[in-house]
Amino acid sequence: MPKNIDANRAQRQAQRRNSAILSAVLSTLFRLLAAWVLLWMRTSTTPSGFVSKLLLLVAVLDLGSVLPIWISLRTRLKEIQGGEEDAAAQY
Fold this sequence. Notes:
Blueprint: H1 3-44, H2 49-64, H3 66-82, H4 84-89
Helix pairs in contact: 1-2, 1-3
């Protein structure tokens, strides 16, 4: 392949990689912020027993979604590295 095609492909892969990483970081920060707000509401407003437990449950579920974000990022980076999108774009 000519050098400019390889350079364009590498540039597109770098853009996709950066976009995927940025998305994972921002999503993680959003989840952490949401969990913090829920826990803050739980401690500062002294809600009833049911609401307190509900806020805790939602905060834990929110925090539990962070690990799948990073697992998905790892899978996405492997897809980008393997050039699957570039191969599919040829069809």
